[in-house]
Amino acid sequence: MTGSGRQKWIGILAVNGALVIIILMWTIPTLGIFVSSFRDRFDIQTSGWWTVLPHREWQTIETIAVADLDVDPQGVMDIRGAVGTFEELREGVQSEDGNYQVTWVGNRRLGRIEIQEQVWAVSWDFTLDNYQQVIGGKEFEITDAEGNTEVIQGDDMSNAFLNSLAIAIPATVIPILIAAFAAYAFAWMRFPGRRLLFILVVGLLVVPLQIALVPVLQIYNELDLNGTFLAMWLAHTGFGLALATYLLFNYIATLPRETLESAFIDGASHFTVFTRLVLPLSVPALASFAIFQFLWVWNDYLVALVFLGSNPDLEVVTQRLADITGSRGNDWHLLTAGAFVTMVLPLFVFLALQRYFVRGLLAGSVKG
Amino acid sequence: MGQLDAAEEGGASALTRLLSLIFRIVFAVAIPLIAFAVIYVGFIFLRDTETRKEITAVVAIIWGVGGIALLYWVFNWLVERLPDEWTRRLQPFVFVGPAIFILLAYLTLPAVNTFMLSLFDRDGWPDGTGFYQIWTWPEAFQSESFVGIQNYIDIFSERLLSEALRNNVMWIVFGSTFSVAFGLLIAVLADRSRYERFSKTMIFLPMAISFVGASVIWNFIYEVRPAELPQIGLLNAVVVGLGGDPKPWYAWADIAPWNNLFLIVIVVWLQAGFSMVLFSAALKGIPEELLEAARVDGANEVQIFFRIMIPYIRGTIITVWTTIVIFTLKIFDVVWVMTGGQFGTHVVATQFYRQAFTARNSGFGSAIAIVLLLAVVPVLIYNLRQFRDQEAF
Lengths: 368, 393
What we know:
The complex is a heterodimer of chains A (368) and B (393). By secondary structure, chain A is α+β, with helices and mostly antiparallel strands. In chain A, 60% of the residues lie in helices and 12% in strands. In chain A, helix 1 crosses helix 14, helix 5 packs antiparallel against helix 11 (283-299) and helix 8 packs antiparallel against helix 11. The longest helix of chain A is centred in the N-terminal third of the chain and has 36 residues, at 2-37. Chain B has helices at 14-48, 53-81, 84-117, 137-142, 150-157, 159-191, 196-204, 211-222, 234-241, 260-284, 288-296, 301-312, 314-329, 333-338, 348-358, 362-389.
């Protein structure tokens, strides 16, 4: 019995151990930018973000002027157990017992010697400056560690955030509305061409949207629609509609037949049945598609790049972040904070409505 | 029941049929067009007034969404005023028409137009002709801009595109394989753990992150510093800690095309959650008796995994695999943000963007888009077959 009991424990341990490793692999990247976004911009550039964890660090405990030491700088010296020539000491030498690191700073005659000891340290110098700079649109002054002031133009992420919202909400609601009507018709009405039209919907599910970008852009140019919210709403509606119709059809078609029929017998019209009965009953399906479409639109980069590229004032968060990556790819204090600003809302929506999202996935949501 | 089986076309006269066809099309087109016109006018008005952006956005949202809902209501009201027979004939098209119209206007017709554009040179349709002016087509085909299949010949002879095609194959092969493998592994592990919900959420979370955001996240992991400075990128810190030299990873052109793997990792990281969810649901569908019987017969867990689980969820594996293949086929954001196609990392979609919008060569760009479309045709046909076999429709 004990043998199988132990085997069981080893099994549980192996499963959970492997799981922990994978979870770490999946969370550490995000954790890295999250932690970094709160670190001072100088700290980010000079030390890894993991130094916020307790770690061993060399710290100077004593400084001695060379003149006070009785050593021959031309030969091999022994200072506090650290043995080496001048050149070696300039690089830093550890004492034989490993307790000290001795470093020669300056030249042979007038330099000084720093004795360092390893101590536990955490670099916990957190700040909200990065977020201020990335979110704010105005110019403001910052003072660095040496006391120099510098005027910096903010990255105006708040404007981009508003744009993203103003695009994502209608681009989510409009296709749902149109698709729900169509899905109802496909499921509960009989009309000529019904099958053919639904085949069109199914066929368009996997069509890459790249196929439509050039012609749609040309039409937009003629209608002077480029760089407007309207252009984005309609484009996202067009590109999301096939999936929306398909998903909602799958759900609406499975609603209990008896319920709908008894409503018709009572003299209700299709429109009444649709608005009073079918829509309320379909809330789970509507919600799962809404989450999909919202995340898709919010996270979209290509469509925004093509149809909004000409109007910097309407830039969405992904464009803004990509711009910072392109122009100042080494400003990690901005990139990390900026990335987090773009992620906050989708992560929140996702965590709050995860159940519906999973249900939508299982219902066969595959975006073309 | 009567209303469900509407529209008996059989006995109708030719005139009635013609009339109902015309009215159906009118209804299908009218709602979107009027909606568009109304929203457009309101929009121009909003754009020209000097209000705060927040207010403009809220008004625009209400205007757009409310306007469309109202139109459906008005048109339905009109149709319901008609004689019963005509209501039955036309009402479905009030419901389904706008969706079909938008699908035609935004995907189907542009796809055909893209194909036509791919037969022209960089400036597309010659002046005075156009896709929607069908009567001008003969003129366009006779003009000098019409180059036939020359763009396609160029695509397959130009070095940049062969590089993009090679990389896309790498993306498809490695991206889908790793996503499926990790998804399956995690699903199996989580299924046996007490912390299933938590672990799945953590793996799933990256699905909410944009490609651009993920690019920043991983760029930070791959960040490289000169060897004498402390590394701030996690991967190089580990490599240096183990005694190696820091490397620029995805920008490491010496190992091309394998540096693409460092970009593919990002998408695996984003997509593993997707396959995990589908596999997890499929695994839960395996009857417990089946697994129990195998255990009684002395099968170990590895055997159960390969002999029972994998065959049982084969359908799901195929679905997930094709989905991720289609997905990686169109990969754009990650490559565009991380490298812009440098260091031998171009893919078909980045070349499409570069040709169509940066170089403004609409003929060449369109031809690349058609290649992308052709690549999904097998899946498209498979989907349609599946649909045909469905009894329900």
